[in-house]
Amino acid sequence: MNPEPGGLTLRFEVDGDDFTSAGQASVQVKKSLRQLGISPDIIRKVSIAMYEGEINMVIHADGGVADVEICEDKIVVVLTDTGKGIRSKDIRNVFRPGFTTK
Question: What's the pTM value of the predicted model, to 2 decimals?
């Protein structure tokens, strides 16, 4: 990778009310990684993770923000949603298959 010193930071607002825009951030990140000459395998993994996170923010969390930092030796993706969080008296329940708070 050859981003400039200090890395490249990208920030995207994910609209929780707009299913048609879900995935736009992952497309932009994919384009940026291609322009930087990142390997296709890494691009694929980052794009899938970004897309999954965006979709989850739209479906479950009323949107949020996606921050991506592209450094010489790593790519850091932080997705911060604006949802209400897990509403369960016993947090262990969320690990049970099929559990829902709805």
Answer: 0.76
